[in-house]
Amino acid sequence: MLNKFGEVVENASLESYNTYGIKTSCKYLVKPKDEEQLYFLVDYLRKNKIKYYILGKGSNVILPDKPFDGVIISLEYFNKIEIEGRNVKAEAGVILGTLVKECVNHNLKGLEYLAGIPGSLGGALYGNAGVKDHTIYDYLMEIVILRDNEIDTIGKGDFKVSYRHTEFKDNNDIILRACFCLDEGNKEKLESIIKENRLKRQNSQPLEYKNAGSVFKNPEGMFAGKLIEDVHLKGYSIGDAEVSEKHANFIINKGHATSEDIQKLIKKIQEEVKNKFNVELELEQIVVEWDYNG
To 10 degrees, the CA torsion angle through 184, 190, 193, 198? Predict the structure, then answer.
């Protein structure tokens, strides 16, 4: 039945669909080929009360250890990019690094600072990804979402975003595509910026290990990594989940870390920082629960 909504894999491993490399699985993995298939798939799942979850590249999520007795929807075929002048249209499944590269190849600037951030465009938009002075929304013109089984186009300024958060998270919306209007730039200069940022990441982040990016949001006026370092948790581990020696706001999978290991380590970090500094560290990563029904 699900085959008419796209490519279907039964009893699919999700290890390669989350950057922590947690060994978990789902009953069905469905990959719609276009928006029409996705629309009718979601409609079918809702009407039949079948549990489902939208999963991008899994770069900011902590999946459960237990298998999912439902449908994981992957938007990996939503990977088209169209560039006309300064206008860039891209689908949610586009790899963020690929989008940046295409823009730079067209001498367009504005997204180059996001090079090196893992994951898909949809995930970046969903969580308002960014670096110190730049976010994915700086040059956004409009975004297209699937909300309550209606496809809506929303202009910039007509929705709420905050530090590493958007209203799309609150509403369980599905981001389909987005349009940006970038500035004209110089390819060589942009590539130089990307190279410099990549080197900074390589020197400061544990890219050699499986991880899901920054674990905690930075409290106002502070850095989560510094707080964790100051409670002497660098290198602290539970199972194969370890606080990175290179950057304390990263948890790495040293081999066979489970979701339980990672979540226990998160709780330990929060408790230690709270006890010493009276600061509540807020998760940037999403702890996924398998009870989602849309």
Answer: 120
